[in-house]
Amino acid sequence: MYEGVVQDLIDELGRLPGVGPKSAQRIAFHLLQADPADVQRLAHVLTEVKTRVRFCEVCGNVAEEARCRVCRDPRRDVSVICVVEESKDVVAIERTREFRGRYHVLGGAISPMEGVGPDDLRMRELLSRLSDGEVQEVILATDPNLEGEATATYLARLLRPMGLRVTRLASGLPVGGDLEYADEVTLGRAFAGRRSLDA
Ligand SMILES: [Zn+2]
């Protein structure tokens, strides 16, 4: 245990995902020794991100305006929606340049272990987006792991009766992993070779 504010910093850092007690201590001491201007910049961006960034009212992606960059772009194909778990997946897919439609960010995946059910995800918002008849295909691009597959299966069952083309990314993605870790070529191929789930 350290004195007062140093321990507070270590505790706060330790609450971040993927940061264990040792890393928290290392980062804290790095900050203590860093140039005050650098720390100032970090503190500034931390407050800025909370005041400026919000979630797109259409797709749930991170945005600095009411709508995200993709939803604001009139060149995007409105007939296709790609469903992903997190905003970081949007970034990964954008990098492939294979997809010209729009996204829907669920905010996670179904996980009974972690107590996450369909109602905790932005599924109702997805259904209301599909009600205007503009969308013809929904690509389920949830992670190729247990939770991602369960979520895709659930959504496919929900969407099939709506008469849409429901597709899932082709295999070839590293099973059990996160979409964001797939390299651009593999992810691009998985997009091009997506298979239909409507049967
Ligand atoms: Zn959006």
TrEMBL record:
SMART domains cross-referenced by the UniProt entry: TOPRIM (SM00493)
InterPro entries (alphabetical): DNA_Rcmb_RecR, Rcmb_RecR, Rcmb_RecR_Znf, TOPRIM_dom, TOPRIM_RecR
Residue stretches spanning the membrane: none
Pfam families xref list: RecR_C, RecR_HhH, RecR_ZnF, Toprim_4
Top-level taxonomic group: Bacteria
Gene Ontology terms for molecular function: DNA binding; zinc ion binding
GO BP terms: DNA recombination; DNA repair
Function: May play a role in DNA repair. It seems to be involved in an RecBC-independent recombinational process of DNA repair. It may act with RecF and RecO.
Entry's family note: Belongs to the RecR family.
Protein name: Recombination protein RecR
Naturally occurring in which organism (per UniProt): Kineococcus xinjiangensis
